[in-house]
Amino acid sequence: MTISVNGVTKRLDLPLTGKSSELTGLKGWQDSSLFVQILDGFNPGKTNTVVISNARGGLIDYGADFVGLRIQE
User: Fold this and answer.
1) Which of 4, 48, 55, 68 has the fewest CB atoms inside 10 Å of its own CB, making it the most exposed?
2) Does 22 map to a domain?
3) 10-67: pLDDT as tens digits
């Protein structure tokens, strides 16, 4: 997964958070996790542009199931 803040891009390797509920009957893929990351590029007090994407070049072309973003100073 990549996160770009005002053009400053950072690639993140996210941990797996679920298990195959189809096979085990456990909570599975609906489980979520909180992932904290420090990012550069923010302009305090101004309008900022944040782009969530997946840059090609990895083993797979699709990205993580992204649920939300919280920005904390």
Assistant:
1) 68
2) no
3) 888 776 665 555 555 555 556 666 778 888 999 998 999 998 887 665 566 666 677 7
- At 4, list the tokens: 């770009």
- Domain membership of residue 58 (yes or no) is yes
Q: Residue for token digits 């690639």?
A: 11
| Residue 2 included in any domain | yes
Q: Which two tokens stand for residue 59?
A: 């083993």
Question: What pLDDT was estimated at residue 63?
Answer: 66
Residue 28 neighbours by CB under 8 Å, 6+ apart: 18, 19, 20, 21, 22
Within 13 Å of residue 25, how many CA atoms lie on the same side as its CB?
Answer: 0
Number of domains comprising the chain: 1
